[in-house]
Sequence to fold (198 residues):
Amino acid sequence: MRLTRGALLVAAGALTPVLLLTAPAFAAGTAPAAVAAASAAPSNGTPVDEMTEDELRIAIARILADPDSGRGVTREANAALDGTVEDMRAFLKTGYRLAQAEDDRVAIVRIIGDPDSGRGVKREATKALDTNTPEALRAFLETGYRLAQAEDDRVAVARILADPTISAALRAAAEDVIDGTPEELRYFLETGRYEVDG
Fold:
């Protein structure tokens, strides 16, 4: 069985560039869990219930070949490959989504435990965990985290502006960025403020 799985992983690896070019949202890592799960189906759109055993194995191998697949997804995908055809179908229909939610939960707990996470990030992460649906967990990781981090970054920039000892150049740069995008705020805090006073 391991030899077959290895061959499937090689085949899935060879197909990955084609799949990434035909599914740009999934390749960018921004697809919701439902879209990501749907992408496990063959590109011809065959429903999971109508897939052959080989198509099921290839779809699961694609999931295993994804470098973003976490421990839960990897464990459940391997268990499905070691099981029956019905086990593989069940994994693609619901097991993948649930295993991804398990991995998402772990990622969110790590974010909460990170000493660099601010109040906004911890508040939104805790809400996602309290809601505890696969969709809420994925939504936090894909968009909520970025927005909560921007909220915390705005507070950090406001604290810089509240310091009466900062230079005029740093004050001007902080005033320019405080209403900026999440990326602009992050760049300012990580790099830009040091360039201004450098």
Remarks:
- The two ends are 59 Å apart (CA to CA).
- Residues 116-198 form one domain.
- The CA atoms of residues 60 and 121 lie 33 Å apart.
- DSSP finds ten helices and no strands in the chain.
